[in-house]
Amino acid sequence: MFGVYAPGSDVAPLIYDGLFALQHRGQESAGMAVSDGDEITVVKDMGLVTSVFDARSLSPLQGHLGLGHVRYSTTGPSIWQNAQPVYRSMGEAGFALGHNGNLTNVAALEDQAGVLPGVLDTDSDLVAELVSRAMQARSPSDPDALEIALSEVLPLLEGAFSFGLIDARHLIAVRDPNGFRPLCIGRLGPPAESGAPGGSPQSYVIASESPALDVVGAELIREVEPGEMVVIDSSGIRSCRPFVGRPIEPRLCVFEFVYFARPDTILRGREVHAARRRMGELLAAEFPASADLVIGVPDSGVPAAEGYAAASGIPFGQGLVKNRYIGRTFIAPTPQARREAVRRKLNPLRESIAGLRLVVVDDSIVRGTTTRQMVRMLLDGGAAEVHLRVSSPPFRWSCFYGIDTPDRSELLAANLPEDEIAAHLGAHSVGFLSLARMLEAIGAGEDGYCSACLTGCYPTPVVLADEVPSLDIEPPSGLVLVP
Ligand code: SF4
């Protein structure tokens, strides 16, 4: 998600650049909503940023205020209708909304709003519907109608949500009280001289990750805080706290550090690449191996592989080549698409690995689909042994906060004892970094992070229905189970 408020500028090219920097967060569809101060124009389509936008599709997007989104579907099918930003029009007023995360109380919200289950495809659409109803209940033409409506709707929402919104004159950023998904604010151009008569108002940018600020020349100011709503308009930037009575307990997703975020992203003041490298160093101490070469699974496994090699003294090298023009396999929407994507994505460097005992460092094993094929590929390519080292603990519980693993029956480590995982994957050994060491690498205490998919300790109430892992793993207290 990427939004810009830049008086006097044409923001569509900036949003294009920002979305391009965030392409790894969603590759199914891309969209942009731009306001010229009176009207909002929306262009969205299925596909990557570069295939959705060109000179022709960008030309109607004229204005100084806008919001862009790239989608990775976690609720609702991957179809044009579900591409974002979601737009709602109420006569002369309208707004656009982009959502990163997953709501966990959709059924309760549908019930409360009198919306029949399934009528709206996505939780983002449901939020847009609730906001639009709240605006219509008052006066949609009130200049502050969107902000007021959000103050009414946001406290009803549970789960993970980082939102960006625009109406004709405002850019708004919201983060849920746990701050599961990242969202940051940047300043574009030099700081405005306060009180200077006739001076240009300051320009601001919001982005899911900080590298998107870098590409448009914006300076990172800070993260949107958990439980905060930031409103940007001609009077400047102001912060509100709409979640009255709700505890504010930061629980940033640890998988942003392990897998999801770009290596050059700054999260909580720490560069993701440095944290990944440290994970590899600690992994080498926890799970040493007798091997000739350490390789990383591109791209997010490579920093941890460098760390593993440095700490173990085993040489680091390349053993897998990644086709740069294919997306991430984990976020491809169907199992079939994921399988095909692995074959197209990775190929072994046969001469570099022939006859060698390899340590292969990957960031995570979720379903095991990718890993199994990759191990086979390396052994068929001539490697003598493959010792898998994983820079995160076993993924045993479903994520309800924006990663597409809704059913535990799909999670490898929820269905196989740890000592059987290596054989299942066809590897000679496997070792997972412990949670304590992973958090040490991130440089934080356990409290500020969500690690529910590793521990089963969910920060918010969730409903686990129809989940049938074959291992009998007891849920810890605090987990809500519905038979
Ligand atoms: S459950 Fe796992 S993937 Fe989901 S938000 Fe929590 S740490 Fe992240």
Keywords:
alpha+beta, 29% helix, binds iron/sulfur cluster, 483 residues, 22% strand, Rossmann fold, single chain
Describe this structure in words.
There is one protein chain. The chain has 483 residues and is α+β, with helices and mostly antiparallel strands. The chain folds into two domains: 2-249, Glutamine Phosphoribosylpyrophosphate, subunit 1, domain 1 (4-Layer Sandwich); 255-455, Rossmann fold (3-Layer(aba) Sandwich). Helices cover 29% and strands 22% of the residues. It has helices spanning 12-21, 49-52, 55-58, 106-113, 123-137, 145-153, 211-215, 254-260, 272-286, 302-312, 335-345, 350-353, 369-380, 412-415, 418-425, 435-442, 452-455, and strands at 2-5, 29-35, 40-46, 65-71, 86-90, 93-100, 162-166, 171-175, 184-188, 203-207, 218-223, 229-233, 236-240, 252-253, 266-267, 270-271, 293-296, 320-322, 346-348, 357-362, 385-390, 429-432, 449-450. Helix 5 (123-137) crosses helix 6 (145-153). It is globular and about 70 Å long. The two termini are 36 Å apart. Bound molecules: iron/sulfur cluster.
